[in-house]
Write a structure and sequence with these properties.
CATH topology: Immunoglobulin-like
Shape: globular
CATH architecture: Sandwich
Helix content: 10-25%
Oligomer: single chain
CATH superfamily: Carboxypeptidase-like, regulatory domain
Number of domains: 1
Radius of gyration: 15 Å
Number of strands: 8
Structural class: alpha+beta
Distance between the termini: 25 Å
Number of helices: 2
Largest sheet: 4 strands, mixed
Order of helices and strands: HEEEEEEHEE
Amino acid sequence: MLRQFALLLVAAIAVAPTGCAAKKITVTGKVTIKGAGPLPGGMVVFAPVGGGTSGGARGYIREDGTFTLSTDSAEDGSFAGKYRVLVFPPPKKGGEDAPALPPPIDPRYAEFDTSGLEAEVTPEHHHFEFTLDPPAKKK
């Protein structure tokens, strides 16, 4: 729980508005799981590579795996630039008393340093598809 809070705090800082006057680009995408179809919920977070000059962006993943990025307001897009990407799986359903189920995606995708996901947003390239591995099977 503490680790999830820390990750959400990092994500919130990464997407804080910068006051930049640059024009935003509508960014859409889809997240799927290899061999299992769309990721039904969760969040995608884009953070500028090397700190960048613009703030990051985030988008809630819908039941069909699609998302639209937001910076300052809902689905207002992202600034052009290179980004590192992380994906949070959907929260567990049923509250704290629900049985612990493994996340539908490999936990490495929830951290920028291990996700291996990157995107470059340009006016010409603003739709991204990420196909993620399921969690590794325990032996």
